[in-house]
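Exercise (ungraded).
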Amino acid sequence: MKIRIVLAVVFISIKGLNQEIKSPNKQLIMNFSIDSYGVPNYSLNYQSKPVVKTSSLGLILKDMPDLASDFQIHEVVEKIVRDDWHPVLGEYKTIENHYVEYFVELIQKQTKRKLNLRFRLYDIGLAFRYEIPTQDKVNYFIVKEEFTQFNLSGNHKAFWIPGDYDSQEYVYNETNLSDIDVMSLDMNNGIGMKGPMSKSRIQSPVMMKSNDGLYINIFEAAVLNYPIMHLDVNTQTFAMQSHLVANAIGDKAYLQAHAHTPWRTIMVSDDARKILSSQLILNLNEPNKIEDTSWIKPMKYVGIWWEMHVGKATWDYAGSQNAQMAQDAALTPTGKHGATTENTKRYIDFAAKHGFDGVLVEGWNVGWEDWFGNWKEEVFDFVTPYPDFNVEEIRDYAKSKGVQMIMHHETSGSVANYERRLDRAFAFMKKNDYNAVKSGYVGKIIPRGEWHDGQTMVNHFNYVVKRAAEYQIMVNSHESSRPTGVHRTYPNYIAAEAARGNEFNAWSNGNPPSHETILPFTRFLGGPMDYTPGIFEIKMSHYDASKKEQVHTTLAKQLALYVTIYSPLQMAADLPENYEKYPDAFQFIKDVEVDWDYTKILEAEPGNYITIARKTKGKETWFLGAITDENSRKTELKLDFLTPGKKYKAIIYEDAKDAHWEKNPKAYKIRTIQVTAKSKVKLNLAPGGGTAISFSPIN
Amino acid sequence: MKIRIVLAVVFISIKGLNQEIKSPNKQLIMNFSIDSYGVPNYSLNYQSKPVVKTSSLGLILKDMPDLASDFQIHEVVEKIVRDDWHPVLGEYKTIENHYVEYFVELIQKQTKRKLNLRFRLYDIGLAFRYEIPTQDKVNYFIVKEEFTQFNLSGNHKAFWIPGDYDSQEYVYNETNLSDIDVMSLDMNNGIGMKGPMSKSRIQSPVMMKSNDGLYINIFEAAVLNYPIMHLDVNTQTFAMQSHLVANAIGDKAYLQAHAHTPWRTIMVSDDARKILSSQLILNLNEPNKIEDTSWIKPMKYVGIWWEMHVGKATWDYAGSQNAQMAQDAALTPTGKHGATTENTKRYIDFAAKHGFDGVLVEGWNVGWEDWFGNWKEEVFDFVTPYPDFNVEEIRDYAKSKGVQMIMHHETSGSVANYERRLDRAFAFMKKNDYNAVKSGYVGKIIPRGEWHDGQTMVNHFNYVVKRAAEYQIMVNSHESSRPTGVHRTYPNYIAAEAARGNEFNAWSNGNPPSHETILPFTRFLGGPMDYTPGIFEIKMSHYDASKKEQVHTTLAKQLALYVTIYSPLQMAADLPENYEKYPDAFQFIKDVEVDWDYTKILEAEPGNYITIARKTKGKETWFLGAITDENSRKTELKLDFLTPGKKYKAIIYEDAKDAHWEKNPKAYKIRTIQVTAKSKVKLNLAPGGGTAISFSPIN
């Protein structure tokens, strides 16, 4: 890939500079200035529309003067960069990276300390970060708070979740900024682990829509050695202010110059589809650092997991018998343990028969009797299976069937314990042919006083990924801090949860039908999610007549999610016996791919609907997914993304006429038609419904 | 070893019980009672003298009712136990373990919760602990404070150091209890890492002497999964109260029933020597858990260490070049680096020539440019040597000379980093034939907010020892929490620092001449100390004429310390060139042993003098050390510890007539005489002086 850099160096030493910078297509305009107190300010316009009004920047430090005022500009460098690249796995074979960079070197007049601001203006949005260069007067320093303002221009509609230090597993709230009120939410929502919250503190990414039709998203990229940024919203002025997640003693970040913060991003467009197709977050991360990536492979998998969520099986072997790690050998099985050798072989057989790459087994290891809610340091040792799970036998059986086993490491939040055992755990995995791990962090963090989203934990999640890369292990972290594109740098960070996944539908108030139409505008911007779609037995009354819980979609929408959710790791989450009841619908899950040459966002409106088409990596097949919220939807799609002149067989998996997520969720139909790039296709989505289409060329 | 147990079971359900229990020799009498509030109380008398007046016991819990009052007795079991044992390494081949146990099962009337108290009454003192048995109503619980009183009977003289959460490296203060005042101390004392302190909070062990001639010591044993206990002293009433070291959020201990606290100990005697010969702390620890102990060996060693303290060499290779772990390869050497291949070979040659077992090398690994005082998480990786330290070449050279290398792991307090790298560090050691590690913890602890003496760190120090045992590695921890006899259970925990060592003499106000006469009554009660004696070039002006610092002893006393300090790991700390100047005095260090069949405390008075004789493990040789404080001392010793009928050659290393720790510290003389068990020998100790004697049988 060629890199073209145009340099325009400007030397400036005057006060009161007000510099205007434009994105490559000139549609986005940033103004930068230093005010009379020496405070750096920026503002952002989309064409003539204000997006961010004049907003201040600065860092509040501990035990030393702040880096927030008294600045003058030492030097400014502006350049335009084009630096396209190819991800190892992804939505696009080639990712365009094109921006105007505006780099400002500031000097604090009294202290003579240096602070640099690096802005990157893309057509889709603005990114900037603070950089503290190597200098005599600053070496080690502690960030007490980051003072970054996003002074929004109006009372936008926002899709937001509470600024909880410990969890992002919330349903999105759709209100105007003025109506944000965390304390008014119903917290009986199934979240096992909640941390500190505040009335008008929300999480980023926050998706917004202005009255004048702009889609605005505030987020961050490349969070490394720094806490997660939440946003304090002023519900009167619509100014947002960064709030970093604290550590055990209230500090935010420990840094050493040279250092920099993560990128703060403001995406903006008058077309919601451009937010979804943006690769801004990935572009702001460092290039891939793993030399040999041949072992990093996309993966569809099944596993012993949903049967625990529906109450058919248990993670634990012996119930609550107060077992201490592997020390208490005399466990009496309850008979409901899911992770048995026999059951695992059944899943391996199923995976082999239907072409799945992997099998996940949760509850295989000693510790589950006594793992939840106890803030206990020594729960799991990650190497001791229950007596009914024969690791070697399963290893050999899986190998004979050509199926990869996926290891599960639940830490219960005891990171101290996990880190000290990590090398042993990974060595055990490799010895037993496991090349991927699903990790879990359900619990209050140990080291005690730390939070899931603090600097310590951000470092932990990234450490595990780096260490895993040395073992050639892929990582799928659950209950981690939400991704910010770091999988560009470490592509073995194949997926994460870090949002409200499908399992909440099994035992809580669940995820409303709009949920999956919001996630791509929020959580997915940071990286792939292991959402675990594919539930065919929608209603939990199937398992227990007294249960009212259900998945809040139709069956056809569960299929469409395999396309609308981007992830190179996708689970077919339901039970084998449920798939076997619906082999025709199951065929789509068997066929759908998880790694792509190209993605086209056909339709999108956050909270309402999304339609996406994707071309398989290295093949001529395409897959399309369309989903809607609680409202039914009719649409007609042009198939002009298909290769002109080619004929395709399109298999359409859609809601039956009377389908409805609540009243009749399993009613679907399947039809096959022949199409070309000139064809149009009409879709009818039921309330809470969806459509999935596979396109294969006819030779 | 035979275990004789006499059982006397007593069932009691009445209120207001006042039970009297006597030690095996009936000299020590404990009373136990429950007061009208249901608070458990104990008191302790030595013969007719009160030692501890009626004192309360209880645990203050977080988020649940305390376990401190409203108790009634459910059952009492009294028994007498004799259970002698053999340590792997030690002062005695056989350790007598003989006590009366008094076990009280309490029930809290309102809550129906159970709390047990286990008392053990030895002839030398009382020990007790709290036990929380398995029960329905208590599973996980958090100790907010332990409410253990030691209500002393008078305004005793005390040898105390401040109750600092982070360091024990203080000079002992000798005052009455009424005059304890931490805030009045001169804190310009060379201690690199100080934590929270309080006006009248002191550390245990605290050594006291009453006006009526009793020697009283309050300490603890077997601190596992619990914080270190400091003592809050009421300077008016002379009541002491336990104060546990807190964690990052102010909690003290996280426990799960069944659980117990460490033992709280009160030693008492009218003979100071009995305090020193007591094996109470070891007896209260669990037996050895390491099956094969063949690799646990006593060790005399030299090393690249003192030359850094005297300013001749540096730990770092490149000075302050702000190096980040092993990442910055381009370090420019300053030329003063101590840990070079060449210098190491010189020490190996010296060790081989003079019969030392090991060579320690500090400053061998990348990180020292940037390690101190920065609260930095990633400093050392423990596997990357500086470019001038060839690990393989040194490994092969040491092997060819029959010398063991001792690895050094400075963590700078970043325990998070050390634990996640520990397996790699130990594997690297074994690959390069290192079987012993000296660890260091100079710095504020990471996880941030934790303290050296909190539960998290206690667990860390014990974890490292256990993990090291799995690699067959011996551990010598510096700046750890002070030992409490856990080396009985893990005898590879061969030594620790955890007190003010000899190096403070090189660059601070140093250790006064009385220092080494107090340590055996305090710090050494918990376990061996790597004090690093043997300094021959006493005055630092030898290295730099402008320096005023010096070791506060005579040269002869430096020899005597090898006997008065018990440790199976002893360093000959001075430089090879200094030893070569005084080969006759050096001969004692070469000859002295470090593992013993038997130890006899001949004379002892805390703060004044100590004289100890020890018989070599498995040999007929004896060694004697006598030390005094700043006052000269004359004494005559009976040698009746020697085997009757045998003749011995005694080489006496003593202060010259005009020797004086300050004015003439290097003046010594050596004389050889012939003695038997019937002989007496007169000693003349100079101010700050000492005498060392080796006895070898004449065949």
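Further reading is listed at the end of the chapter. For now, observe: The two ends of chain A are 33 Å apart (CA to CA). Confidence is low (pLDDT under 50) at residues 1-9, 11-16 of chain A.
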